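We now fix the convention by which a protein and its fold are recorded. The integers have meaning only within a learned vocabulary of local backbone shapes. The record below shows the convention in full.
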Amino acid sequence: MMEIPVLFSIFEIEESLGVEEAPLKDMLRGTGLRYTKQRGEVLQLFREHDTALTQAELEKMLPSQFDRITLYRILRSFEASGLLHKVLDDSGTTRFALCRTGCSEHEHHDEHVHFRCSSCSKTLCLPEVAIPDVKLPKGYVFGDAKLLIDGICPECVISSN
């Protein structure tokens, strides 16, 4: 029987990932997800953008070897593990943004306002602005609240002056 030489050990592969990918690996491992190059690339895009992104926007930014199903599965696994949260806008398009604090697969803590700029169309998380408490009439049970504010972002205000 012919022996096939092992070219790289798992440790050599991990070392070759470099410093830039180490935080990505830590983020994924912290949620119980295994690091893959594709997961790392998607997570890096979210870290580079301060806006909520759609799957279509991500598809345009990622290399062509990504297929829609793989990206869909990555987004769903990130949401289920507490890395991302959904941001819904009134167009019906689902956007995703990085969770900021203490989210897990069982519970998201992203009760903050989202802001959509009517000039540049970016959707941003405003974690410093909490969704106000709403007192429901007797018999109603609160489940979830989402608040999307439309307006003009600071960048567009500056550029219009």
About this structure: Strands lie at 53-54, 84-88, 94-98, 112-117, 123-130, 148-151. The chain has one domain: 10-99+110-160. Residues 4-19 have pLDDT under 50 and may be disordered. The first strand starts at residue 53 and ends at 54.
